[in-house]
Design brief:
209 residues, Maf protein, alpha/beta, six-stranded mixed sheet
Amino acid sequence: MTHRKLSGRLVAATHNRGKLRELVELLAPYRIEVVGAEALGLPEPVETSDSFAGNSELKALAATRAARLPALADDSGLCVEALGGAPGIYSARWANHAKDFPGAMRRVEEELAGAGAPQPWRAHFVSALALAWPDDHLEVFEGRVDGRLVFPPRGDKGFGYDPIFVPDGHRRSFGEMSSQEKHGIPADGSAGLSHRARAFQKLAKACLS
């Protein structure tokens, strides 16, 4: 597949301000001007796919067609092994329309307790980044980070399920890490820590370098 190079301006196809902030920070070194879907008044499409990649494609294509600009979308979530991969693609829905992630994290804890799952509670985050152009050219890149869950939630940084997820090889949760620690990409080109950073590294190599 021939990758298409990205430059200039793009739409970040998300209404999640934490996710928008991370995408802006990841794109900053490449001098890409980023405008959020909310700022353009774009609606949030209904996520009907059964995969992270499918939902990110759906969101990116909806945004690029509406704005007539390249669009970058992320679909990501927490997959808990003892819960059969839940909440997975339904991670945001567990927080409902009020974006109640403290409530969603309580639900994860309650479901684990109800299942009698022994510790450590293994889990992983997945991110699928879809980059789309107005002519429907589309490229998708995925990243994953493995770790374990901790309760009660720790830290007030990040967003979503970050406070309960401790990546392998670390003692602190994503909620206790700075944005640079979480998704910064090392100068030596080694893998970034977060799932989104790892997906973005693949995208950058293909479409930004």
